[in-house]
Design brief:
alpha/beta; 6-stranded mixed β-sheet; 3-stranded parallel β-sheet; 10 helices
């Protein structure tokens, strides 16, 4: 009798586990049930995501991409602001359904999360350097204080160079620290740094370091094992490449456009 009870308990546990695994990829089902897709986005400034100073409404390339996903899925989109320090946790804890949050693919992140196979962009890092900087190459940052964001994919390569990392909660705080001369460089996505230096008078005389550091594909992140969600979204991303929607959005936000053939499409 004890053995029977034990077997029933084991079967029950396995059934519960299977049910949990089946539900683990119910992301879009839950979104459909609430008629809302929750997308984590960065709104810390730059062409990928910011708050419009006039309206205080989210704007940027990632915002447009999230809204377009919602349109094609016939769902209202709730944009959830995230930071480098908490974006992974927000996805893992179910506070958001997806992440489109300035988080490029790398092997370390791939062990923690899942992602839609087709990238929507590709970007590397650059360093904003103050006027008169003696830094001419990435190796020149060895032993020097360098500002970046917590959770940035550039922390590892900068550490390997030998830079003294000063990580902040947001890119805005990092860039303020650079202006205050608390570091010799601020390293962030080139798509944030280059437009900032090229268009904002406050950054007159600052330069960007080339070539780009650690260029990597930009992907839509999911929780691990969410193959159904990824399979539903991948054709949408491919379609946005083929139709030219992504290039038009990049141009609209003054981001260097990348043609679909650069992604094998």
């Amino acid at each position: 009798m004890g053995l029977c009870r034990a077997m029933k308990t084991t079967v029950g546990m396995l059934a519960a586990l299977c049910a949990a695994q089946a539900c683990a990829d119910a992301t879009l089902d839950r979104a459909q049930a609430r008629a809302e897709l929750r997308v984590g986005v960065m709104l810390s400034g730059g062409p990928f995501g910011a708050l419009d100073p006039a309206t205080q409404q989210p704007v940027g390339f990632n915002v447009d991409l999230a809204e377009e996903l919602g349109r094609q899925l016939k769902l209202k989109v709730e944009l959830v602001p995230v930071l480098p320090a908490n974006r992974v946790q927000f996805l893992q804890q179910g506070k958001v359904d997806l992440l489109i949050a300035n988080m490029e693919w790398n092997t370390e992140r791939d062990t923690l999360l899942g992602h839609v196979p087709t990238p929507f962009y590709k970007v590397g890092g650059t360093a904003a350097l103050p006027p008169g900087s003696a830094v001419k190459a990435w190796a020149d940052l060895a032993g020097k204080p360098v500002c970046t964001s917590q959770g940035s994919s550039y922390i590892k390569p900068l550490t390997e160079i030998g830079a003294d990392i000063k990580a902040f909660k947001s890119s805005a705080e990092s860039l303020l620290a650079l202006q205050g001369r608390n570091c010799v460089a601020a390293v962030h996505d080139a798509t944030l740094i280059k437009p900032l230096l090229g268009s904002n008078p406050e950054w007159s005389g600052y330069t960007a370091l080339a070539p780009e550091l650690n260029p990597a594909p930009s992907v839509i992140w999911t929780r691990p094992g969410e193959g159904d969600t990824q399979a539903r979204l991948d054709p949408i991303v491919q379609g946005l490449h083929r139709s030219g929607w992504l290039v038009q959005a990049e141009q609209r936000h003054h981001i260097e456009p990348l043609a679909a053939d650069q992604f094998g499409l």
